[in-house]
Every structure is written in structure tokens, then in C-alpha cells.
Amino acid sequence: MKDEKGILFILSGPSGVGKGTVRKALFDQDPDLAYSISVTTRPSREGEKDGVDYFFKAKEDVLKMIEQGELIEYAEYVGNYYGTPKAYVEQTLEEGRDVFLEIEVQGAMQVKENFPEGVFIFLFPPSLEELKNRIINRGTETEDLVRNRLLEAKKEIDMMDAYDYVVVNDDIENAVSRIESIVISEHCKRERIASQYKKAIGSVEL
Amino acid sequence: MKDEKGILFILSGPSGVGKGTVRKALFDQDPDLAYSISVTTRPSREGEKDGVDYFFKAKEDVLKMIEQGELIEYAEYVGNYYGTPKAYVEQTLEEGRDVFLEIEVQGAMQVKENFPEGVFIFLFPPSLEELKNRIINRGTETEDLVRNRLLEAKKEIDMMDAYDYVVVNDDIENAVSRIESIVISEHCKRERIASQYKKAIGSVEL
């Protein structure tokens, strides 16, 4: 059935959980997924292409987009803005392609508000002990800093309630395969496809 | 996480769609699934074992089970009763195993009423034209009979609205793989597992 629209999937989770690695492995296996292209105010680096790596914009243009609600989420980072343009996401979905967004928990909450029909996947650490060890082993952070980062992670995990799915990142291959199952299964959801099927039935002559 | 309960999956769809074939192929690939064992009042045949093929019961016992709401669905067929015992389903789910029920649309509607927490999967014919051809080619049915059976199939397809998922049986392997994705993805649903994960977090010392 070809009329079907794409689905926006949002992959998020606490920092340190391995979102980027999982997302890359997923894209290697599923070339049909479209990665959401962000707008940014930072200058392009050598080799980066406008409309491929980012949509490069002037600060005033991005501020205007924010003001007019044209970004489904945005953040400021070291003086530059980064955001996800609604128009690009919607156009890609209209073409029947799924869009995949890998994003921090705070950004995911903005998407939830501006694009509630998205499918929200929370990547969960294999165990909290391991997340603790990873944070401790990352470097020469003081005990207080480690404690703060863990409290932060706990808070982020509390936001799990806003998500549709929870996937444990016990092993990258397992996590990717579970996410692929979620993608397939979401396309089988009755409320997405029933109307097309019913149309198909109606056209059969008795 | 080991506290997780199993899930009851109900596979249904119009007659002629290939439910039995898909179910068998699914069980060949996933030996962890428990097939729901029915009670029946018909006498056991050679080689059939009580508690394996069926729970063989006297008619009065089954009528009593129906009266006391101990069957999540039942039907009478050529003078014998067949039904799905709630106790067996619930006990298997408690053990953490998924239960799979392959059933006619009418029976599925009864399950929906008595066990709404089940996951309902509707198997859809690759095309209505093909379902029509299959019914016509089945034998020497008159034009009127074919028309009636098609009207019946259309009515059954209208019940699609009560289902969670629609899977097209375009190819057995594809259909089985979609159903397996649904099984995996349902186990990742946040509302099923979030509380266990939160418990796991709570136990980590900062």
C-alpha cells in the first residue's frame, strides 16, 4: 500500500548511554531511514555540504524560525543555535520515508510538545552500576562531579514516562535489532493503515 | 529484567487468509511461544494427550466453566464445545511466557471483551481480488455462495477496528517476520517495563 506516510522516530536517553553509536549502526543496516538534517548557525567546516550535513543559516534567520514555530526543537550550544526544521521533517514523511532523530532528553521533550505523533524510544543503560562506572572512568572528575552527573542521569531517566518504548543498550546489535522491530511494528499499527485497507476492500466488486 | 509477565497475542482474520499456516511457521521459528491449549468436549483421538493437545472435559464441566466465566472465548462446533481457559492463559503469562492464540474473528471479539490487555493482530489478505479468487477456486460453489462468503469476509474485515495491528499475508515469511517484530516491540513498550527499570535505578547508591 503506497499512500502510507513515513513515521518520525525519536531516539533519546541519558548522556553516556550510547545513542550515537546505536544510531550509526542502525543507519548502516537500514539505508531507507532518513536522518533528520538540522539547521545551525555555526559556520560550515571543510567538506560539509549545505542541505546534507546541516542547513547553514544566519543567526537572525534561525531566531526567526524559532519565533515562528518552524523548529520542532532547538538548543544553543557554545554560542551557536542548532534545531530541527519542521518543514524538512514533514516533507520527508509525506514522501513516505521514516525520519530518525537522535537527540538529548531535553530536546526530545520539546519534540514531544511540537510533534506528539512521533514515536519516542528511550535508550536505557544495561545497568545503572555500569553507567556509574562509565562516568567515573571517563576521566579525572571529582567525586562531587560524578555525583552530580549521576543525579542528572537519574533525572533524565525519570522522563522515561513520556516515551513509547524503552530499549536496553546491553549490546549494540541487540539494541539495533529491537529498534528495527519497533520500526516494522509501528508500520503495522492498525490506526495508521486501516483506512487504506478499507479503501482497498471497497474497490472490490462483488 | 526477569519480573516481566508474558503477553497474550491473538492472531485472527477473515477465513481463507491463512491464519493456520502463518501460526505454524511462527511456532517453528519461535519455540519460546506457548500455544494456548483449548478445552473441548469432543472425545480424544488416538495419539492426542490431555493437557497437551487439548484439555478433554465432560460437557457439563465445560458448561459450568462458561457459566462461571472461566473461558475467555468459546464456540460450539458440530455439537462439541471448544474454548480457551482463562486459568491456563493467566498461569502461563505469570511464568513470563507469551501465549499465542489463533482464532476466528468472532472468537477474537470475545477475547477482546474478556481479556482486553491482549495484543490483537489482524491478518489481512494480500488483496481482496485474491481472496475472491481463492474462494471461487475452492470448489464448485455457486455464484450466490461465493457472493455470500465475500460479503462475510468484508464484514469480518470491518472488525479490523478492534485490533492493534494489521499484518498483510503477502508472503508467509514476511508475515511471520512482521509478527515477530510486533512481539519484540510489545516487550519494549514503556508502560510494560518502566516500573521495573525505575526500581533498578532506585537501588543504585550515589
TrEMBL record, chains A, B:
Chemical reaction(s) catalysed: GMP + ATP = GDP + ADP
Q: Which terms in the Gene Ontology molecular function aspect does this entry carry? A: kinase activity
Return the broad EC class.
transferase
Which segments cross the bilayer? Answer: none
Q: Which positions fall inside the Guanylate kinase-like domain? A: 6-184
Query: Could you tell me the keywords of this UniProt record?
Result: ATP-binding, Cytoplasm, Kinase, Nucleotide-binding, Transferase
Annotated compartments:
Cytoplasm
Query: What's the Enzyme Commission number for this chain?
Result: 2.7.4.8
> Which residues take part in binding ATP?
13-20
Pfam families found in the cross-reference section:
Guanylate_kin (PF00625)
Instruction: Quote the SMART domains the UniProt record gives.
Output: GuKc (SM00072)
Entry superkingdom: Bacteria
Q: Which residues form the signal peptide?
A: none
Q: Which SUPFAM superfamilies match?
A: P-loop containing nucleoside triphosphate hydrolases
Q: Which family does it belong to?
A: Belongs to the guanylate kinase family.
| Described function | Essential for recycling GMP and indirectly, cGMP.
Q: What is this protein called?
A: Guanylate kinase
- UniProt organism field: Alkalibacillus silvisoli
Gene label: gmk
